[in-house]
Design a protein that fits this description.
The complex is a heterodimer of chains A (554) and B (169). With 554 residues, chain A is an alpha+beta fold. Chain A has 4 domains: 107 residues; 102 residues, TATA-Binding Protein (2-Layer Sandwich); 113 residues, no CATH class; 106 residues, no CATH class. Helix content of chain A is 29%, strand content 28%. Chain A contains 12 helices and 25 strands. Chain A has a 5-stranded antiparallel β-sheet with strand order 1-25-24-3-2. In chain A, helix 1 crosses helix 4 and helix 7 packs antiparallel against helix 11. The longest helix of chain A is centred in the first third of the chain and has 30 residues. Chain A is elongated, with a radius of gyration of 41 Å. Chain B is an alpha/beta fold and 169 residues long. Chain B has 2 domains: 29 residues; 138 residues, Glutaredoxin. In chain B, strands 2-1-5-4-3-6-7 form a 7-stranded mixed β-sheet, covered by helices on one side. Chain B is elongated and about 75 Å long. Classes of the chains: A alpha+beta (554), B alpha/beta (169). The interface between A and B is large, with 48 and 40 residues. Chain A: Its main location: membrane. Chain A: Keywords: Cytochrome c-type biogenesis, Membrane, Transmembrane, Transmembrane helix.
């Protein structure tokens, strides 16, 4: 157990434990008060708020976070671990479905495997990294509170007449013999300091001049900014605060943005390339995109939103032509042009049925590639859709099959009934694409029926296809405005603390003997020139350098 | 007093932030022991079926498409397994990979399948299950967690062995 410290100053002021300079008169307290070296003026010598002689459990936690040393350790550890996260790409930088447990080992070998096993592939989302950030945040709050409150109190009730030891042990000191009326002299000097922007407080023959006290709050405003910044970043884990996903939309399609109530339609995607004469020589002959543009429409679902059986009812909320760097923006959601694919996709055809004997043409009828009507009536003919295939092929067992679910080589098998045909109907296979018609020899398969009827498309106007698909990046970051607010606070605090200095001058005249001491947190050169400049104005010439009383940074 | 308020605030905010990272780690790719995502899909008659309807039962969720030969081979095998085990409470849910109605109906008629065939729409369910290749089969224990994820086709004996194991849990 430590000795109970006597914290009462000779001026009668009761200071709290841990006080270095008497809160009232400024007299140095404690064992080193015999020295005449410059004083440690940090936080004006007041005790930190939490300094107690008998800390309990909560006080100990508080004191742990209140320590600047701990704060620095935390920051250094965070920096070092953040560096670890940059060795290999993080998991969240991969867009496609990929398996991290395989990827890292395959790509980087054993170090990659270890990297994955240690969880460094998601460093910045790991519990311990977030934990470090939380601890830094806590330390910021507690360190600041512990110092700013006592400092505020000390600065708002400063005593004008300071202890002689306090004055003589400043880093800028001046002593002089004053002739005549001391109070008059102090007033004259005060007037000169006032012209330099100081606020003057007089107490008989003692004076306190103070300037730019607000710069002392700079670091704390900076800390408030950093805390806001940290909170904003932590807030990203709130559901629906942050999104970064990708959607593919073929021309004319409407696609839901996953996990939202929004749907996007791509009315038309256009890509324009530079002409050869627009390109420098070495790029001639290559296709360089000049413009990607998606004519996009954003819809909000208003009803049947989660109903599997019914179509959702959509309401248009925004229409925008998305080009690179000009996203569609709506209520915090941003849709960026990300990529495109110019593979065309057949959506529907509008074929006609030709009676080859009479030359009569029936139709056209609507035949979408997916979910077509099952029956089409065309004059005397009836087509019943028997089967359809997206990517037609003949399987190993000789039966027709499909190789995928995308309309790459679509085929339709109809049962055709009509004049001169079997009453039960005759099968007819139809390939909308000419290449498939040839490849699978449509006419041979259809046999005799191929001589009686033909299903064909007349002209491109009867073909409905998507020329391209657009890839959009969907982003949402509700935390961003708060990040900016935090950054602004932080910057304002930095500027306040960096470009202004808190300067104070204390002086007192005792029986014709002037004692002047001055303190600033930085720019001692300016401090001394303020003191010397004002002295010059009342007729005392002194070399500013001679005011230097030693001490670091002085 | 201020100390306690601030430390409590730190506990709440920090606890939430750290907690959500631990929770997010749980949300990664599905694996044995994790909870399969919920779905609500229509069967061939247009009745909505959801996974939670089968709580407390052994469920086999199989993703299939007519364009995938091993899936096609498996479907009649699942039918035989279904007939073999249905009285013991086995549930088979075969989710079609967003193909069109005619294709699915023709297929089911051809193989005469009796277990529920569910229709995924626009690949939503398949995405929520993080499917990478077909077929993929999830064996879900009566307690609602995944016993095994089998990517790729299985022989009938392999299906049988897994179902037997599943029903013993």
């Amino acid at each position: 157990m430590l000795l109970v410290e006597n914290t009462k100053c000779e001026c009668g002021h009761q200071n709290s434990v841990g006080t270095v300079l008497c809160e009232s008169c400024g007299k140095p307290l404690g064992y080193n008060d015999e020295s005449d070296l410059p004083l440690e003026m940090r936080y004006d010598g007041v005790a930190r708020r939490s300094q107690k002689s008998n800390p309990n459990f909560i006080d100990r936690i508080w004191n742990f976070f209140s320590s600047v040393k701990i704060a620095i350790y935390l920051i250094v550890i965070t920096f070092l671990t953040a560096m670890l996260g940059t060795i290999y790409p993080q998991e969240n930088t991969f867009i496609n479905n990929f398996d991290p447990s395989v990827y890292y080992e395959e790509t980087y070998g054993l170090p990659g495997k270890l990297y994955y096993l240690l969880g460094l592939t998601h460093t910045y989302e790991s519990w311990w990294f977030i934990g470090l950030l939380v601890m830094i945040g806590t330390s910021l709050v507690i360190c600041s509170l512990d110092r700013v409150l006592p400092l505020y109190r000390a600065l708002s009730k400063q005593q004008v007449r300071k202890h002689l030891q306090f004055i003589h042990r400043q880093k800028t000191v001046f002593r002089h013999k004053v002739e005549g009326d001391a109070e008059q002299w102090v007033e004259n000097y005060g007037a000169q300091l006032k012209r330099k922007g100081y606020r003057i407080h007089l107490d008989g023959s003692a004076l306190l001049a103070e300037k730019n006290r607000f710069s002392r709050w700079g670091p704390y405003i900076n800390h408030i900014g950093l805390i806001l910044f940290l909170l904003a970043i932590l807030a990203r884990s709130i559901p629906s605060w942050q999104m970064d996903s990708y959607i593919t939309i073929p021309d004319g399609d409407t696609v839901q943005i996953a996990d939202t109530n929004y749907y996007v339609k791509n009315e038309k995607f256009t890509v324009e390339y530079y002409k050869d004469e627009e390109l420098p020589d070495k790029l001639k002959g290559t296709s360089r995109a000049k413009l990607f543009e998606t004519k996009a429409v954003l819809y909000e679902c208003v009803s049947n939103c989660n109903d599997q059986l019914q179509k959702p009812v959509l309401r248009e909320v925004k229409r925008h032509n998305i080009v690179v760097n000009e996203p569609l923006k709506y209520k915090g959601i941003k849709l960026y042009q990300f990529d495109f694919d110019t593979t065309p996709r057949l959506n529907a055809v509008h074929p006609v049925l030709v009676d080859k004997q009479t030359g009569q043409v029936y139709g056209p009828f609507d035949l979408p590639m997916k979910d077509s009507a099952l029956q089409h009536k065309l004059g005397p003919y009836t087509l019943d859709l028997y089967a359809n295939y997206m990517e037609f092929d003949i399987g190993d067992n000789g039966e027709p099959t499909t190789l995928s679910r995308d309309p790459i080589a679509p085929a339709f098998i109809f049962t055709v009934k009509g004049p001169g045909l079997d009453a039960k109907g005759e099968p007819y296979i139809y390939f909308p694409m000419q290449k498939d018609k040839v490849k699978f020899s449509q006419d041979t398969i259809n046999g005799a029926l191929a001589n009686k009827i033909e299903i064909r498309v007349d002209g491109m106007e009867n073909v409905d296809f998507s020329e391209a698909s657009t890839y959009l990046n969907v982003r949402m970051d509700k935390a961003l405005p708060y990040v900016w607010i935090g950054a602004t606070f932080s910057m304002v605090g930095l500027l306040m603390g960096s470009y202004w200095q808190h300067r104070r001058i204390w002086l007192r005249v005792d029986e014709g003997e002037l004692s002047l001491g001055a303190h600033t947190n930085k720019n001692w050169y300016g401090m001394r020139s303020d003191v010397a400049g004002a002295l010059q104005k009342i007729g005392i010439t002194v070399d500013p350098k001679s005011l230097d009383n030693g001490g670091n940074n002085a | 007093m201020v100390q306690i308020v601030i430390l409590i605030a730190v506990l709440i905010i920090g606890g939430y932030a750290i907690g959500s990272t631990l929770f997010a780690a749980d949300k990664g790719p599905l694996k044995e022991g994790s909870e399969p995502p919920q779905f609500k899909l229509a069967d061939l008659d247009g009745n909505l079926k959801q996974l939670s309807d089968y709580e407390g039962k052994a469920v086999v969720v199989n993703f299939w498409g007519t364009f995938c030969p091993p899936c096609v081979k498996e479907m009649p095998e699942f039918e035989r397994q279904y007939q073999k085990w249905k009285d013991e409470g086995l549930v088979i849910l075969a989710i079609n990979l967003s193909e069109d109605t005619l294709t699915v109906n023709n297929f089911v008629r051809r193989f005469d399948l009796h277990y529920p065939i569910l229709r995924d729409v626009n690949r939503k369910t398949e995405r929520s299950y993080g499917l990478k290749s077909y077929p993929t089969t999830f064996f879900i224990k009566p307690d609602g967690s995944i016993m095994e994820i089998k990517v790729g086709g299985m022989t009938e004996a392999e299906i049988d062995e897994r179902i037997e194991r599943l029903l013993q849990l």
